[in-house]
User: Which sequence fits this backbone?
């Protein structure tokens, strides 16, 4: 029945049924087939959303929308341009740096490519960059969003296993920074190779003016992450602080929106939140069904029966996650795969904290790859570029992402050093 369940999910998703409904319908069919009690459905639906750490999700989404509406993202881009504009391929680099800063607030890849890519992609095209390259850079930069803390994906993972969210955030910081720096190196190399333009030098006065104008926007990640890592507030409380901060700065300091805009911003955030929470609710049912039909044990036996090499088993798990990331929304995939894969990796001696970062990096790469590739698809739409060409432009960044993934998998210190230090 486990194979049929997986096939049902893939078929429903392939024919265009939203992932939340695909998970729910597949679970219902399995429950009816196995004669399981239907009363479990409302219990698991509520249980999938009834978690204090998950409260951080709507608040981080709202803070990202307020940040975007308040003009904080534009000021981050201006500061990045002031200090990086003289580098080869300056606009792609600015896009990567600004995406990392924005990611430190929103925790969402899709929000990052919309907020930052929506500004820098047209600017790159206007400056002479190929539209598909602009889409590839901005989309690749956006996947740092769920890796650099705070991360909605890590919040879901930590809440599911009752792990410390702050520890997961610390564990993801080094891989996230490494990914951003590697992307910058790729952008510089490509700029020199293809002779892409650069913005030019900026005077000291203009740099000072940019920093003054963007001071409150730059301070926001410091306040949020500093508060989390110093222990002054939990990630959920930090999300509330982020909302209050972005509201005050956006409304009263930068005046990017007015009171009349608040209902629209709240509505946009509510839709995004509802989408994620519905996925989490239905995936919780599926996770229960998977456990009841003993699928985790069957999969574990199958994987461990192939080889007893920890190196090869982890490689196989990465391949599985890459395939799942191409087909399924990351938060749903985490809820579903936790009961299947976590027992295997812990048996191999891997920390659940490290595996959480590994899953996040892996599934984020899926945001770039067909057939779903939602971030690359959105970037292509903004650039009005052919998706196929954008895929080609994305591949060098994807390859770097695979390198970081392998380092995360086989070098535990990469994720455990900073939490241990703190």
Assistant:
């Amino acid at each position: 029945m486990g194979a049929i369940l997986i096939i049902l999910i893939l078929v429903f998703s392939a024919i265009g049924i939203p992932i939340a409904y695909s998970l729910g319908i597949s679970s219902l069919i399995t429950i009816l087939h196995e004669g399981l009690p239907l009363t479990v459905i409302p219990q698991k639906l509520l249980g999938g959303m009834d978690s204090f750490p998950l409260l951080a999700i709507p608040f981080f989404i709202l803070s990202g929308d307020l940040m975007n509406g308040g003009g904080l993202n534009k000021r981050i881009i201006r500061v990045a341009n002031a200090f990086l504009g003289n580098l080869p391929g300056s606009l792609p680099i600015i896009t990567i740096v600004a995406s990392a800063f924005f990611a430190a607030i929103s925790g969402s890849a899709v929000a990052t490519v919309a907020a930052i890519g929506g500004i820098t992609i047209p600017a790159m095209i206007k400056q002479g960059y190929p539209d598909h390259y602009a889409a590839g850079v901005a989309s690749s930069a956006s996947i740092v969003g769920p890796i650099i803390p705070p991360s909605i994906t890590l919040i879901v993972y930590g809440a599911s296993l009752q792990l410390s969210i702050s520890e997961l955030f610390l564990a993801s910081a080094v891989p996230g920074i490494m990914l951003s720096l590697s992307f910058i190196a790729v952008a510089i190399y490509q700029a020199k190779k293809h002779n892409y333009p650069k913005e030019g030098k900026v005077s000291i006065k203009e740099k000072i003016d940019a920093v003054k104008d963007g001071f409150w926007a730059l301070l926001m990640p410091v306040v949020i992450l500093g508060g989390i890592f110093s222990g002054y507030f939990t990630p959920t409380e930090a999300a509330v602080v982020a909302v209050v901060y972005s509201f005050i700065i956006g409304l009263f300091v930068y005046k990017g929106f007015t009171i009349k805009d608040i209902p629209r911003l709240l509505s946009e955030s509510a839709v995004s939140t509802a989408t994620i929470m519905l996925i989490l609710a239905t995936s919780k049912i599926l996770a229960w069904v998977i456990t009841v039909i003993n699928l985790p044990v069957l999969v574990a036996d199958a994987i461990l029966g192939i080889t007893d090499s920890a190196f090869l088993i982890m490689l196989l798990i990465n391949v599985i996650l890459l395939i799942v990331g191409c087909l399924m929304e990351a938060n749903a995939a985490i809820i579903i795969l936790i009961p299947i894969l976590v027992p295997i990796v812990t048996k191999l001696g891997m920390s659940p904290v490290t595996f959480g970062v590994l899953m996040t990096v892996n599934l984020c790469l899926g945001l770039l790859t067909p057939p779903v590739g939602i971030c690359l698809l959105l970037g292509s739409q903004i650039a009005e570029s052919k998706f196929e060409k954008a895929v080609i432009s994305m591949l060098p960044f994807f390859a770097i992402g695979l390198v970081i993934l392998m380092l995360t998998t086989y070098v535990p210190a990469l994720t455990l050093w900073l939490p241990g230090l703190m």
Notes: Residues 53-421 form one domain.
